[in-house]
Design goal:
The protein is mostly helical. Helix content is 87%, strand content 0%. It contains three helices and no strands. Keywords: Membrane, Transmembrane, Transmembrane helix. This is Phage holin family protein.
Length: 123
């Protein structure tokens, strides 16, 4: 009987170690994806911001010929403000639908392992 308990303990330890290794690998892979994507989005945002500044300066200069500069600047500022509002509204849904970085496969495996162990213990 003690040999069975010892073997069960050893198997449980191996299962837990295996699940921890899987969780680490899964979390590491997801972290790499988030990091790379976030860095690229950040770089694109900076470059886009610089382009927008140049475009706004050009757009203000054009109507500033017949209008006062402040009026031209006010008119041109309203357009990017509306674009930004639309982008924020459009970006809200995908962010809400994004999955968590939790190791979902490992969690399911651990739940199944616990259920199996509970089932075996009641026999």
């Amino acid at each position: 009987m003690s040999e069975l308990v010892q073997r069960a303990s050893q198997q449980l330890t191996e299962v837990v170690r295996g699940e921890m290794t899987l969780a680490r690998a899964e979390t590491k892979e997801k972290g790499k994806r988030y990091g790379k994507g976030g860095g690229l989005f950040g770089g694109a945002g900076i470059v886009g911001f610089l382009i927008l500044q140049a475009l706004v300066a050009t757009a203000i200069a054009a109507p500033a010929v017949p209008l006062p500069v402040w009026t031209a600047a006010l008119i041109v500022t309203a357009v990017p403000a509306m674009i930004a509002a639309g982008m924020a509204m459009s970006g809200k849904k995908p962010v809400e639908q994004a999955t968590t970085p939790a190791p979902e496969q490992t969690i399911e495996n651990v739940k199944a392992d616990v259920a199996e162990i509970k089932g075996s213990a009641h026999r």
